[in-house]
Request: fold
Amino acid sequence: MTVEETLPFADWLRLREPADASARAQDLVDAVRPRLTGAAPIIVHDLGSGTGSMSRWLATRLPGPQHWVLYDRDPDLLARAAEGMAGVAAADGAQVTVDTRCGDLTRLTAADLADGALVTASALLDMLTTEEVERVVDACVGAGCPTLFAVSVTGRVRFTPADPLDAAVQDAFNDHQRRTVDGRRLLGPDAVTATAAAFTRRGVDVRERLTPWRLGPEQAGLAAEWFRGWLGAACEQRPELADPARSYAERRLADAAAGRLAVLVEHRDLLAGG
Reply:
């Protein structure tokens, strides 16, 4: 089993969008909403927007005119995100407009975000390094606006029913998430803790919530696709798992297809300065 057997990235983002939407912490949105005042429309900076999952979800939960600025390295994803925002309206029906910016979001400065009422991101932090998190936090704190980071993985997974290989695969996957890529050592499941600590060191209050995916028979397709990627990354990290992984994958995928598998994939949401 290899990582290449999984869906193309844009298709994966679309597949996971409903699970992300169900998981995100609505009470953190409620907490930040009173801070979103001032000149209309409010400006929201969405870092690593992908296909626009976070912007589509959050825009409909905020009142008043909004202008979203979407950032990503991938111009194709940005085009999909902008297209997906067409027709999206605010919670009270007000207009939502969109701009896209292609580039390295870890090089943004406080000046780039200074016009924002909110900075947000979803499923981003684990792909950053310690140094990149520090730069992003510096930019957000310098801009003086609240920051809402959603659906950051913690590395903890729970299957029902359990299997003896679960723990070994989880450990291998988490090591893969912490790998070094082109000289960059990714934070992986340590990212949300590192981000919270970075805000706290700068004197910014942080609130966190557990926001797990809870995948049952109704999400069997997502569970199977997530599992393939999870196991593929683990085997890439520890090739000695490849042989036992074959029968493990057969058991798990058969359970998912038959509606017998439940998976809890733990995430955390973080609100800084709200």
The radius of gyration is 19 Å.
